[in-house]
Amino acid sequence: VESMGGDTWEWDGDDWRLGQPPGPIEETDPFTGAPLYGCTLAYDPAIGRVLRGCGSELASWDGASWIVDPSRIVPPLTDGYSLAFDQSRDRLVLAGGCFPEEYAQCAPFDETWEWDHTRWRWADPPSVPEARRGHRLAYDGVRREVVMFGGKPLREGTWVWDGARWSLKTPVTAPPRRAGHAMAFDPDRGVVLMYG
């Protein structure tokens, strides 16, 4: 499932299906009124739905429409953040982002938050990756950690989150700095894949 520009599409392995057509759909944050930028998706196996983070809203896809639950307002009303579902800990992880007004000039955050299906909890690890937006997270099911790469201002480094601390990895080979890319875990090959 991917959402962009107010329409949602589903790929079933053979064909794309328009799940929600463009039209009178919120293109601004329902809580702040700011334009929605940099939406991010993560699958939550605990509820069996894809979650969409856009601005301060966290919505779930029920197969026909996005359902916004006001109790899941994304803290601290950020935009440009990334989400990944940590399956080993049953937590949705949110990292980075910035306040949604004037996206191009916003000051990025270096905060990490987790949703446990009841409330958001601010994780206060001893060290954090540099503040960023437009980065990506992906859950690595083999190593049971969330991987972070990229972001603006353009950042180098591969970070991993184990639920208690961020650790900077030192790979021999790494992609160049980037933002706005895509990352996903390939369980058959046991690797995190990056594109863009």
Structure overview:
It is a single chain. The protein has no helices and 17 strands. The mean pLDDT is 82. It is mostly beta strands and 196 residues long.
Give a nutshell description of this structure:
By secondary structure, the protein is an all-beta fold. It has strands spanning 2-4, 7-11, 16-20, 40-44, 49-54, 57-61, 66-68, 82-86, 91-95, 112-115, 120-123, 136-140, 145-149, 158-161, 166-169, 182-186, 191-195.
Mind telling me the C-alpha Rg? 16 Å
Q: Structural class of the secondary elements?
A: mainly beta
In this structure, how is the largest beta sheet organized? 4 strands, antiparallel
The residue-averaged pLDDT reads 82
The DSSP helix count reads 0
Outline the low-pLDDT stretches.
Answer: none
Shape: globular
Helicity, as a percent range: under 10%
SSE order: EEEEEEEEEEEEEEEEE
How much of the polypeptide forms β-strand, as a percent range? 35-45%
The span between the termini is 18 Å
**Spatial ordering of strands, largest sheet:** 4-5-6-7
How many strands appear in the DSSP assignment? Answer: 17
